[in-house]
Amino acid sequence: MTEHGTDPATRAFVDHRNLLFTVAYEILGSAADAEDVLQETWLRWVRVDLGQVGDRRAYLVRITTRQALNRLRAVKRRREAYVGQWLPEPLATAPAVAEDAELAESMSMAMMLVLESLSPTERAVFVLREVFEVEYGEIAEAVGKSPDAVRQIAHRARRHVGARRPRRTATVRETRAALESFRRAIESGNPQDFLDVLAPDVVLLSDGGGVKRTALHPVVGAEKIVRFWIGGSAKVPETIAWQPTEVNGSPALAVYVGGELDGVMAVRVEDTRITGLYFVRNPEKLTHLVSGTPLTVR
To answer: Which residues does the UniProt record annotate as the domain RNA polymerase sigma factor 70 region 4 type (predicted)?
Structure first.
């Protein structure tokens, strides 16, 4: 890219890069795939006659959405053969993201998993309409549907998501308090400390990508999770340290084994108790946490 202070195409792309990345990430659930989509968007954008573009932001979002949809349809087939449970790639976010409640909720691990249950087109429509408030006409051009069809798709997606989202989104303070209680339980190893912070029907989902040892199926129920966690930790000979971090617009915990980043734990909190644990250990999904710059704002 040339110096964005003098090139209008580059300047427009750089100005909207965070928005485009966030759109791609929320459609794909993968920072690595989102980066690839941005590269593809750039290659198409530099061939566009800017004199024919009335709204550069809308045009860039349209290109990004189309490329993200193409990639999502391809990776959906890959994920069907994934070893164990697939979780979204945790994305480092700056505190400013958590201040945007709607954006933070849409990026949460819990919501990203709900979005996984939508069809590719439903997911793109939901993200563009509900998260970024894009007009139906613009969405229609991005997904290749009529505005009426997009309205129907949006209604169907909202109903699907609404049936699966938490009754009330936990505040940052509530999530941080629950995580701190969970961290203290890990350090104490006392089963009762775990049971005090975990909801009875809590679910643990863990993603090792076939590389790191994790539960291949969901672990359901507080007592089962406590046994699984204490038993697994006892088998690790190296020093384990848990540190607060921020991913996907919410507080989380990063686990270091022998001084190296080994995983990230995100949670879903309802009524002060943890109802969902999302533990990502797949090394490929931790790359951006080590080398990337935290996402700021859309």
So the answer is: 109-160
Assess contact for 90 and 289: CB atoms under 8 A.
yes
- pLDDT per residue as tens, the chain (298 positions): 444 456 889 999 999 999 999 999 999 999 999 999 999 999 999 999 998 998 999 999 999 999 999 999 988 878 888 889 999 999 999 888 888 888 889 999 999 999 999 999 999 999 999 999 999 999 999 999 999 999 999 999 999 999 988 777 889 999 999 999 999 999 999 999 999 999 999 999 999 999 998 999 999 999 999 999 988 887 887 888 999 999 999 999 999 998 999 999 999 999 999 999 999 999 999 988 876 667 765 5
CA–centroid distance for 22 within its chain: 10
d(CA 94, CA 297): 8
Amino acid at 253: L
Q: How far apart (Å, rounded) are the C-alpha atoms in residues 104 and 188?
A: 31
Sheet holding 273-280, edge to edge: 219-220, 198-207, 273-280, 260-270, 250-257, 240-247
Q: Please give the distance of CA 160 from its chain centroid, rounded to a whole number.
A: 18
Phi, psi of 189 (to 5 degrees): 70, 10
Q: What CA–CA distances, in Å, run from 178 to 29, 130, 266, 267, 295?
A: 25, 28, 11, 9, 24
- Pinpoint the alpha helices (H) of the chain: 8-15, 17-28, 31-45, 56-80, 95-99, 101-107, 109-116, 120-126, 136-143, 147-162, 172-188, 191-197, 222-234, 287-291
272 Rama class: left (phi>0) / alpha (psi -120 to 50) / beta: left
Q: What is the DSSP letter of 278?
A: E
Beta strands 250-257 and 260-270: pairing type? antiparallel
Beta strands at 198-207 and 273-280: parallel, antiparallel or unpaired = parallel
**SS3 per residue for 52-103:** HCCCHHHHHHHHHHHHHHHHHHHHHHHHHCCCCCCCCCCCEECHHHHHCHHH
